[in-house]
Amino acid sequence: MIRYKIIHPEEYSAKQVDEIIAALPAWRREECLRFKQRQGQMENALAYWLLSEMMGFQPDFVRGEHGKPEVNLNVNHNLNLNVNHNLNFNLSHCKRAVACVISDDGKVGIDVECLGRYKPQLAEYCMSDEELRQIAEANDPDGEFTLLWTRKEALLKMTGEGITDDMKNCLTSPRAEGVEIECGINKERGYAWSVASKIWQ
Q1: Distance from C-alpha of 53 to C-alpha of 51, rounded to nearest angstrom
Q2: Are 88 and 165 a contacting pair, CB within 8 Å?
Q3: pTM of the full predicted structure?
Q4: Are residues 93 and 47 in contact, defined by beta-carbon separation less than 8 angstroms?
Q5: pLDDT reported for residue 37
């Protein structure tokens, strides 16, 4: 089953964020407090808190082949839980949204990005000719660009590769075969999001 959730940092008070930071495991709290700006600390803390809420425990991480975090199944989490060895997750955050997806059915990736990032030069760098045409013909070029960007990021985060030299064509490349991508724009909150998933055969 694949589940995802998006929350909004502006809905959390400074006191709530401080309590969440204080409740983080020491390793994650140290990582969180490396951010000099309060916004970065808040996004980092809320992302881990959301993951813990969805999983039902505070996971430890190990790094996969491309550096993607995975749940460390060699730790008992101080709970009598039979942690699913197929458990996959991914996190994303920006100023306006914090997102988490978890799955025991296959690989997953998620991305959230604030609207307002569209620049023609950036689009030329990371979009295919067909995608550039879509953006140019859209009623909302910025929204279309940001939606396409999150689709690419979610896919590449799902594969564990992150941004690559093939970002222009990644949505039509072999790595996208069998991948489902759900996406949307929250104009009221000012962000776009995408969730990529591939069920194990």
Answers
A1: 5
A2: no
A3: 0.91
A4: yes
A5: 97
